[in-house]
From TrEMBL:
This is Tellurite resistance-related uncharacterized protein. InterPro entries: RmlC-like_jellyroll, TehB/YeaR-like_dom. Residues 8-82 form the TehB/YeaR-like domain. It comes from the Bacteria. The lineage of its organism: Bacteria, Pseudomonadati, Pseudomonadota, Alphaproteobacteria, Sphingomonadales.
């Protein structure tokens, strides 16, 4: 079985270039998984339903389920990227 590959990836964002849309409540569409990958620093991932917060750092990707409402908050200097998949990713 082949490993899923992303069909799209965001640019690498830093604490200043991270779009407001990612800092506010949003979700992926039906059938779309996201994987947040922190390159440097730390990022707070807030899941809204059910509520939870997770601090992400390099080597600790976060899989986002389809339609899962969430937002992210930089914790100091950081860089991150999001990969999008049309099937469940490995993480």
């Amino acid at each position: 079985m082949t490993r899923p590959v992303p069909y799209r990836s965001t640019p690498i964002f830093d604490q200043d270039s991270l779009p407001q849309a990612l800092r506010n409540r949003h979700s992926t569409k039906d059938g779309v998984w996201g994987v947040i990958r922190v390159v440097e620093g730390r990022l707070r991932y807030t899941c809204l339903e059910p509520f939870s917060e997770t601090l992400l750092d390099p080597g600790c990707p976060m899989v986002i389920q389809p339609r899962q409402p969430h937002f992210v908050t930089p914790v100091g200097a950081m860089t991150m990227q999001v990969d999008f998949y049309n099937q469940p990713p490995d993480g």
